[in-house]
């Protein structure tokens, strides 16, 4: 084992931590579990112990012993029970890039053989099916069949100016499939020339990084780039913030990319989306990867305010300070109970606003919060921004609205 998974900058940043504990104050895993050992501060301390145990100089001077199997297991549990929401990074007064550090630790733990068994499941699913759920690739666009009146080409065109990159959650989870249905209908009515990739779309790669499997990522990047090049597209649209963030940070800037909220705002400004009045009071949840990750805060709110009759009430913690829904970082596969507890916090905060619905711009947030709401019969609706716009959409005379 070695420290090769960390950059020089990261090794320096570890000593910059002032132990101010602000990271623990904002951590959704800590507040939901009441377990302070899940904080970034404790994770940083555990990492220092690991690095010192490997370094000959430290071992000689400090008489460090090897880390026991039980200690490895405990440290691994702390590292992987994190949503990677980057709330700690936002709160850090010295500006440590904590999210990237957490990804490096996960990679280190995978290389060291100290990781939850579920990580192997994620790896196997991605290797076999090119998606984190292990579902058949040829079924990635099956949601089109659930539209009331899908076009004959089923959005599988040989060429198009725009590619809609659906993402694994919306492609395979029935609860989230109404999101691509809604967006496809909106794009249709707006006259956007778009296509899907279908089975040629592979996972964007975020679950790979979150599982510590960075070495596998390049194959996915190369495949997805080539699939879009074959379509002759100029623009790629994502409804999933994690897919969007991956393309912003890790893919070459070969295409113009938009999150759906940004693309919808442009269409609204061009008066290409005809809207009717919808009487609804909503609050807006900023997804971690779209808000803190990509700094997209204004466009979703502008879209909401563009819909006649919709009133927006802000959450007490919003924009950069918005709390995670519990659905990130592969947490649901590692610790479903903790993920649900974090979701409960989020839903209760939304309920406190008095809004009829909580709107977000992330298919995973919709799935996580809706699951909690339905299981616990909570009186609030959860929807994606595309679904809200679709609710107000006035179809063209020759088109029928999708469900």
TrEMBL record:
GO CC, alphabetical: plasma membrane
Molecular function (Gene Ontology), one example: oxidoreductase activity
Keyword annotations from UniProtKB, A to Z: 4Fe-4S, Iron, Iron-sulfur, Metal-binding, Oxidoreductase
Record protein name field: Fe-S oxidoreductase
One Pfam family here: Fer4_8
Organism: Desulfomonile tiedjei (strain ATCC 49306 / DSM 6799 / DCB-1)
Domain 4Fe-4S ferredoxin-type: 8-37
């Amino acid at each position: 084992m070695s420290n090769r998974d960390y950059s020089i900058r990261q090794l320096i940043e570890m000593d910059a931590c002032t132990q101010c504990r602000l990271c623990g104050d904002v951590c959704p895993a800590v507040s939901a579990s009441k377990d302070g050992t899940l904080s970034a501060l404790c994770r940083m301390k555990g990492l220092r112990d690991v690095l010192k145990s490997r370094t000959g100089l430290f071992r000689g001077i400090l008489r460090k012993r090897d880390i026991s199997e039980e200690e490895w297991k405990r440290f691994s549990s702390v590292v992987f029970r994190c949503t990677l929401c980057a709330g700690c990074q936002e709160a850090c007064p010295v500006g440590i890039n904590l999210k990237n550090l957490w990804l490096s630790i996960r990679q280190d733990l995978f290389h060291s053989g100290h990781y939850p068994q579920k990580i192997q499941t994620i790896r196997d699913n991605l290797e076999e099916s090119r998606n984190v759920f292990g579902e058949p690739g040829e079924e990635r666009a099956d949601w089109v069949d659930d539209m009331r009146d899908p076009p004959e080409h089923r959005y599988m065109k040989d060429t198009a100016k725009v590619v809609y990159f659906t993402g694994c959650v919306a492609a395979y989870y029935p609860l989230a499939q109404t999101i691509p249905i809604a967006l496809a209908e909106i794009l249709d009515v707006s006259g956007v020339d778009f296509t899907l990739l279908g089975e040629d779309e592979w996972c964007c790669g975020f679950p790979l990084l979150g599982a510590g499997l960075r070495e596998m990522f390049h194959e996915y990047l190369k495949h997805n780039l080539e699939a879009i090049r074959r379509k002759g597209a100029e623009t790629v649209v994502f409804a999933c913030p994690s897919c969007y963030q991956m393309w912003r940070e890790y893919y070459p800037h070969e295409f113009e990319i938009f999150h759906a909220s940004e693309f919808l705002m442009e269409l609204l400004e061009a008066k290409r989306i005809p809207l009717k009045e919808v009487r609804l009071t909503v609050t807006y949840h900023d997804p971690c990867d779209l808000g803190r990750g990509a700094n997209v805060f204004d466009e979703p709110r502008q879209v909401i305010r563009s819909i006649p009759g919709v009133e927006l009430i802000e959450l007490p913690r919003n924009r950069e300070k918005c709390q995670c829904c519990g659905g990130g970082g592969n947490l649901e596969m590692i610790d479903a109970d903790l993920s649900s507890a974090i979701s409960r916090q989020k839903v209760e905060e939304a309920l406190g606003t008095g809004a009829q619905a909580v709107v977000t711009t992330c298919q995973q947030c919709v799935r996580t919060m809706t699951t909690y709401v339905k299981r616990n019969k909570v009186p609030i609706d959860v929807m994606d921004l595309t679904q809200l716009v679709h609710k107000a959409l006035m179809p063209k005379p020759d088109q029928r609205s999708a469900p």
